Fold each of these.
Amino acid sequence: MPPDSVRQIPASRGHTNGMKTAISIPDDIFADAERLAKRTRKSRSRLFSDAVREYLARHAPEEVTEAMNRVCDGLGCPKDEFSSVAASRILEKREW
């Protein structure tokens, strides 16, 4: 195998299913993550997976909007064009 290729480890190895990867992070962040993992009784893998999952959710606002729209559709909320436009303008100005 060439040295610069990615080595994939079968998902059945280790304690978790999924892709295994190596990342470089600053020492202080790693230390904070270690303390949090111990305090919350989570593995580092679980902690980092949870953190990436939350980060992805925060950076996919269209998915949040779609989910909220599905809830409103399920409740039978009537569409109010003025309120929709006003809310969109306000939300566009906010940092998520």
Amino acid sequence: MLLCNNTNVILYMRYLLITILLFSGFNALANRPMNNGGNGGYSGGRAYNRPNLKVDSLRTLLATSLANKDNPADTLTINRINKLASEFIDVNPDSTLYYGKMAIDRSLAIKYKKGIADGMVATAKVYTLTGKYEKAEKNFIGAQLLYKNLKDDKSLSDCYIEYGRMFDRIANYNQAARLFQQALEIKRRIKDEAGIADAYHNIGMVSDNIGKSPYALDNYFKSLSLDIKLNDNLKAASNYNNIGEVMKEMEIYPKAREYYKRAIKIWQDAKNIQGISTAYQNLGEVLMDEKKYDEAIVYFAKSMTLTKSQDDKDGLSSLYSDMGISYAGKKQYQASIKYLGQALKIATTYNLDFNKAYAYIDFAMVYNQQRDYPNAYKYAMLAKTLADKLGGLPNRTTAALQLSEALGGLKRFEEAYAAQKEYNILRDSLKSDESVQKLTSFNLESSFQEKQRRLAEQHQRMDEQYQQKIQRQGLLSIIFFIIILGMVGILIVYYRSKRKQQRINFILEDKNHQVVQQKADLNNQADKLNELNNLKDRLISVLAHDLRAPLSTLRGLFGLLEDDSITHEQFLSMIPQALKKLEYTSDFLDTLLFWINSQMENFNSSSKSFTIKEVATYEIHNYYEQALEKGITLIDNVPTTLAVSADPNSIRIVIRNLITNAIKFSRKDDTITVTANQENDHIILSIKDTGVGMSEKQLNKLFKSKVDSGTGTNNESGTGMGLLFCKDLIEKCNGQIWVKSEQGLGTEFFFTLPLGTFKEEEAVMVS
């Protein structure tokens, strides 16, 4: 029995408030939950309303949320965890406890009060199912405090319903009824129809458990009407089942079967394990009441298998009692006593007083059948004491009957007479009550059927009105069709005349468009020709200047030697400088000729896979001495394993131009670094220097047809054409080229090339 004295509750509430407000650690209190599919302390398969399962979709959403490691404790994720915990209560209560604890831990981490409260309700439901009522009550009280603090009426009323179910299981029906009524008042105020239906359902269960069948039926039918209105089939199935239970106890078996079948069909369609288990038990009890014990035992065994898989102690205790009575009906008393002992053990261990009372009654009945009156008397007294405490009229009547029979067997006739007299009074009251109940049941069912009939008639009238509306619309459609048909005839005539004019206009427009397009093409060609002409003029100018300079130098040098103006030693000292100018002119001519060839329509790029390292290293080696003469460090950081797919000669020319540019605009002690790396499906090569850099204005002029090349740090000259060649060659290799620079800090050129295939045994030789 639950410990609910005021001192304990007040002390615990103080502790819980301090814990919640400070958000210190929270330890979930158990790890062995079970299904809440039991009978709520009633001999027979009652079914609670439970939400429809959406486990798979919730798991998918939760996996998406948990995958975000940067934000592992957001409120959306916590709400999904609590929702998943709630959905698992009917299929895997162990998972409910696991997710409930997870939600509480994550909520504490971010001080999310609603997440803590929802997690506490989930774990409390599991503790209720496992018979750990003190722990369940603490969690329910804590959740109520948080919901009140948050002014969350819906969650508070839901908590009242779950808390009331706990009291219903331990036969504290007054407290359960009070909580269900509080929940109903809140649900009405916030106009939560699904919640109102749930509250009616639970009030009906409590009323049924204390023998107020008419009031129970009234609430069941109210709940059922709302479930049908809201199209909530699973909750409707629970109400069908419980109405069938009441009908069975009134011995109205045909009606009971009718309602059972409605519930079973819904549960089977939904593959609801708890519902199917309850249906098997109910069918077994009907067969047991009809003394078809062998058939009843088959259904009880099926139900027991499912109930054990759910670890439902309440339902298991009830099933063991049913099995015990069935075997007693077959005169197999040893098996009967064994099953009744298991029923009593579970009911005692988990404080299931209603089940315990029925186990005592069943023991007394079996022992009376065996004429073992001392044991029959013992259990009859226990049954009577507990039945009087619980107050249910059926229990008290049956207990009085078994006590009277046991006392008679013990020849304690005066006490037996008193017990028989009490039994007669209770029986007459019960029969009178049953008559009223049957009449009430008939009236309630008739009222429900009348409501359903009126609802069906209303739907039929709406369908008829809809059909009439469709017919009227059809007639209007015919009239409009005739009008439209006449208009179409007129339009066809008009259309044909206009069509001819449109054809003529279309031909004229097409011709006009062709003329405009041809003019645009001519303008584009003219622009290209002007651009090529300008480029030709510039190339001629560059060639005239760059070829004349080294030739003039050689002519002057040889003239001085011929006139004996200089000595042979002086002539030899001037040769290196002249050779440099010739080498520069030769490189420029090679580049120019290669670029000119690339502009030809019949030029074929010899694209192949080769290691960028070999080409880059070759050019770096060629210009190493030139860089060293200016005091510049030339660094090769190109990996050996990177292969590109391009024309090697084109890439050689590009790298050569970019390195000579870097040397030209670098100073003593500057550094030039050549690097390459892979990015996705291409290679990025970089030539970076720490030289003089460029201004924003200079950057904007790069890669254009008209570039004024500045002099280098040692007054080196240039043509201004190199970068234009580089851009064109890189683009022909399906790459891109760009530059970053800051004046005074240096320049870095980048270009990309498609990724090639690297083979160690192959090496690209570039001549």
Amino acid sequence: MDKIYNPHSIEQPWYHTWEKNNYFAPQGEGEPYCIMLPPPNVTGSLHMGHGFCFSIIDILIRYHRMQGRRTLWQGGTDHAGIATQMVVERQLMLEGKSRHDLGRDAFVEKIWSWKEESGGNITRQLRRLGASIDWSRECFTMDDHLSNAVSEVFIRLYEENLIYRGTRLVNWDPKLLTAISDLEVVYHEEEGKLWHIRYPLVDSDDFITVATTRPETLLGDLAVAVHPEDERYTRFIGKQVQLPLTGRTIPIIADDFVDKEFGSACVKVTPAHDFNDYAIGQRHHLKPLNIFTPDAHLNASAPNAYQGMERFAAREQIIHDLDVLGLIEKTDKHILKVPRGDRSGVIIEPYLTQQWFMKMESLAAPAITAVENASMKFVPEGWSKTYFQWLHNIEDWCISRQLWWGHRIPAWYDENGQVYVGRDELDTRLRNQIPSDVLLQQDHDVLDTWFSAALWPFSTLGWPEQSADLNAFYPTSVLVTGFDIIFFWVARMVMLGLKLTEKVPFREVFITGLIRDSEGHKMSKSKGNVLDPLDLIDGIELDSLVRKRIHGLMQPAMAQKIEKSTRQQFPEGIAAYGTDALRFTFCALASYGREVRFDLGRLEGYRNFCNKIWNAARYVLMNTEDKEISGTRALSLPDQWILSRLQDTIQAAHDALAQYRFDLLAHTLYEFTWNEFCDWYLELSKPILTSATSSEEQLRGTRHTLIFVLEQVLRLLHPIMPFITEEIWQRVAPLASIQGETIVLQPYPKLDAALKNTVIDNELEWVKKFIIAIRTLRSEMNIAPGKLLPVFLCKGVAIDKERYSNNANLILKLAKLESCTWLSENESHPESATALAGELEILIPMAGLINKDEESTRLTKEILKLQKEMKRAEDKLQNPHFADKAPPEVVEKEREKLAEMTVTLRKLEEQHNRIKNL
């Protein structure tokens, strides 16, 4: 093996080998196990959320493959309607063209060309992450068989009256000119205004004051609402007010929705331009009045003076005109949650338009029952409440989008506007017996991307055909996803899965937290805290990182701020950590929490873990290659102990994976590999392998144990760290007499109860305590680690003497002792430092080892210095300007720092007292 671990020399060659040999395909006759890849957008690049989620899925896939299950990770990408259309439209803009210049068919053809040339970026990145997807089955949501499934579902649900066309309020993007889903609306806190506008009462000099943040929608008001129990306004209920600037009068109505404590407690009701107002309008039978065009200009329903004006220009004019009339009572500054399109960035309008909808109430009931009767369960279980909350309050789903890229709605219209559905025009004519001389035109809209995504678990397996794959792998085993799409994807898959297959699409749903930066902030371009998984794997130099972070930022001040912070945080760029270290970090962070704080310090620590494994493997191979291993073996105490501890580790790994506690899995394997195998067992093996008194049977026993445990460790770690484990396993497997081409298809270790021995565990733990006690005293007394020491032992019980006698050679070697003398009960001993191992006292004579006065002076200086630092930290925490105004995470860090200093001070004082008492 190379002396230095270099992930880049092994990762891509091994992945190529695995894929070429088809190791990721379902194999054997075991029980099927299947996970669906949440399909990333075909336009996308791998981000930290992908890296985290897909690493967790791959751990499960590799583990169950090694468990002998017939394992399928079904991969593929989503056509991502808006995102993909925008990418290609931007390309056309650079050529001075628009999609309308090309026409629909040519534009869609251009998108397909782009997809073939550039759409595979994210699947290449998935390979870099080590994802063991069966690429021979890769799907795309616009593939023919998936598109056929989409049409089949639309037709079936339409024929059952579960899909209908109607006029409803939707999220409307006036730049992209399409309805969008709630998930595509991002709310930003922005500074705005709250205008208090007077609405004069009819036949009265009195008025009612209405507070609004959107005065331009006043032109579409149909009522003013007050709370029915608000005594200030009950006398006005049923009366009319003059709607300013319009010449119309509107009624004052009572509705429980009104908040008596907000603003003037009088609410303008604009059913065509506000979701809450739409609901009020339905309750009071108000016919919505739409005042906007699709591109957010005032339409012919507005007064002549405002027709054709852009919405925000109209706002300014309306405010001016109201002010001239003396109808602006006051204006307050107000922080708004402004809805913006996540793709276009423009403010979204609630907009009344004709769309296609899916009735959801009857579909939601079985989906609720499925979780209530445990046909499907959430992990952690608490997320079922979120699921129930949405399904119990579900509304019909707007499934149409005004785009050209996507699954075109399989509906046709005749010249009279009559609608028919069918897979294509011929099928539509045959289904509906439409003569050939009747002209038909297909609906221009496409289906919401989430429509096809909701069919993903079964359409990818061949539905509506009863294929062998569908019968074998559906329902799938588990879905792994973030809590942010429980509504938009998880619940819809369950509803349509139950409706169309009469089965839940997955038996379990593991909900992960969302990736944040180390301070708990969302990673975003505007914050300049985005990390690219590929940069963490390959490394990136500073100037390239800066260019990447500020690319596309429109505000120079923001770009300068981000450049400065990036250069401060990464003065030398980002080091190359390799895929295995990144995957292990994701695994270690995957608890049941809502957020996952990603810390580069953890990543660096797990890169060191990779080095530790590599160096341990080199030690094992150096002591086993070309040496006798087979034959009669005698196992030493350390051999038996590491085999016993291995069994506990194997069981803990299985338990953690069964509970989706990936953090506990990582902790268990790290502790065993680093602390018990590398730090203790390898050190304990050295005296045996180098002693002239060791028998051949003992040498073979230790060599075999080294190889056996290392090979087991590699298999235990393989689902998390596939590359380094494969590279080392190829060298280790022949020595362990193991057949097979790859670790990928090796069985995961199983508990061997015969190797578990608590007596051995206890004895070796005693040896460790003894050695640690000596090492601790050395450190505290500033004694050189390599200096051989004489020690005295006293007050031990019989079992201490027996254990020392059994393991004297190991203790003398590892504790670096010159001699070890047992003292009788009343026997005196020289001035010594004392440590305890249970009831046993371990005495190190101090004569000639340290200068008592010099050591005392050194410790006094350290104590005084630390006390000053603690005083500064205490004063800082007691200062209200810091404690109340600094970010909570900064205050918490300061508290943790003070706690650490307190522990250190206690240890220094104990050490000082020990020196004084010598």
Amino acid sequence: MSEKTYNVLFLCTGNSARSILAECVLNRLGRGQFRAFSAGSFPRGTVHPYALDLLRSQNHAVEGLRSKSWDEFALRGAPKLDFVFTVCDNAAGEMCPIWPGQPMTAHWGLPDPAAAEGSETEQRLAFAETMRMLHNRLGIFVNLPISSLDRLTLQKRLHAIGMEG
């Protein structure tokens, strides 16, 4: 008997950094159990070059990554979502589309590395720190006994993960 593959959508306003990083990290950590996607409420249209550099340096596949609207995931024929996580405060406060199937949701706010100021090194360090936090949170997420948790307990666990550093 094969286990269910869970579809997870990461949302951010611009879909150029945090949500893209989260998509790649979960697709690696959750291979076979999770399939990750990312989108934005107001997509920038391009993935931030520092995000792409960081992903390449860690041997993540970057082909096909693009900044896209969350509207794509509310359309007929879109993947049925099991989880939707906001990774920026702006997206958490925005009116989201109605997701078919009532996926579990949580806010996992992270500082925006694309807004980091300072030298190039300092800006790239902001991306690395965001990646570290995502890796920590997603490492916890992929190890949850999802199928054995009731909905309320799972929701509490998802909320708690958003508080992890």
